[in-house]
# Entry
Amino acid sequence: MRSWSAPKISRLPGNGEVPRLYDTAAGEVRPTRPGGTARLYVCGITPYDATHLGHANTYLAFDLLNRAWRDAGHDVRFVENVTDVDDPLLERAEQTGRDWRELAAGEIDLFRADMEALRILPPAEFVAVTEMIDDIAVLVGRLRDKGATYELGGDVYFHADAAPKFGAVSGYSQEEMLALFGERGGDPERQGKHNALDWVLWRGERPGEPAWDSPLGRGRPGWHVECTAIALAELGTGFDVAGGGSDLIFPHHEMGASEGHVATGEWPFAKAYVHAGMIALDGEKMSKSRGNLVFVSKLRQSADPMAIRLALMARHYRADWEWTGGRLLAAEERLARWREAVALPAGPAAAGVLAEVRARLADDLDAAGAMAAIDAWAAAASAGDTSDTEAPELVRAMADALLGVAL
# Structure
């Protein structure tokens, strides 16, 4: 599937540090140790509404990682999916009287435009689930051959007890898993399951729903196995980072890791599981089910996308925080200060600023700390420190290459 256009990235002198990241499975900040090519998989949207600030916050976080890896001298193979067939999409299509394919195509186009405006580096492979149906069915067949599945009412389930490492990604208790599974699209109370935490790999055809022919019978994939199949096809097992919002820790990343482990016999499925925090509005997590969404496309009608980007980076990517209009206003003021400073003919020496920005980003993507270093430089420049004629261009380049902000 077509991705979006890549922004031109400024070149910087030297190289930065290889970033250290908080790995949810390990419960600590750990070094990333990619080979020549860093491999990144980020779970994408279900295109029935796009793109709210929670999405943007997540994709911006992994854009910072992408940029930090590149600055450290690595090539990056970044893969992102689009779940373009799933219950929420089908439900929205029915509610609005639209064909589900038409609805998905329109929202994917809007998502592309939002990502391009925010200067998110595009994935090397932007993969729709509907492009991978055969691969997903083959993976379910491999799991069946391993004895890890069973059928129930025409559906194929993964047996959680067949996964030796089930629970290793989230570290959650059985009670926590059951509660979250029910909240996040699971069916823990379905009668006939071997374990309440077993999950659907292949959903048998239902009247009025899209379905595909496969060796498993006509139907469509379950949610978690989709990303597992795409990641295996595009990155292989043991890739560097699996990323998404913190609401994907369980069940999505937990279950995907188990599928990958059982299918390949290799562990870990991803070397690190990295998660962005949730954004709230009016005291509640921003989500489609609650309807309390702030859409990037609406904000872009009246705000510079670079100010939106700065507003999101002002809080650490792992933090949960609340969106208010004041955050955008503060970001607009910061953007104006930076632009005024880099427009000066000279400013304070900036080599130390570059070193600090790189160090902050290498420390678990501390964008707020990196921005504070540029704030201090801009304040000194505006106060009349004009000792270096090359400094404004260096600051402009680091804001672009490392923070994705066009000045």
